[in-house]
Amino acid sequence: MHGCYDAWIVTTSNFTRAAKEAAERLNIKLINGLILDDKLKRWKSKKLVSKR
After folding, report:
1. Which residues are registered as beta bridge partners of 9?
2. SS3 label, residue 46
3. Helices assigned H by DSSP within the chain
4. CA distances (Å), origin 7, targets 2, 11, 41
């Protein structure tokens, strides 16, 4: 992919089976709404802990 190290597609919803299959073939990381929410919560909790 045109000199990219990583390719991610983020959605607040979910991905179709066809999208998942295409992403796997193209080595693209898919992040759905639940994963995004979890990553943001963990990031926020780390920021709060580091401020103490």
Report:
1. 30
2. helix
3. 17-26, 33-51
4. 10, 14, 22
Q: Which residues are 26's β-sheet partners?
A: none
pTM to 2 decimal places: 0.64
Q: 2: which DSSP letter?
A: T
Q: What tokens appear for 18 in the block? A: 């066809």
pLDDT in tens, 4-52: 788 999 998 899 999 999 999 999 999 998 888 898 899 988 877 776 6
35, 9 Cβ separation under 8 angstroms = no
Tokens of 37: 């929410």
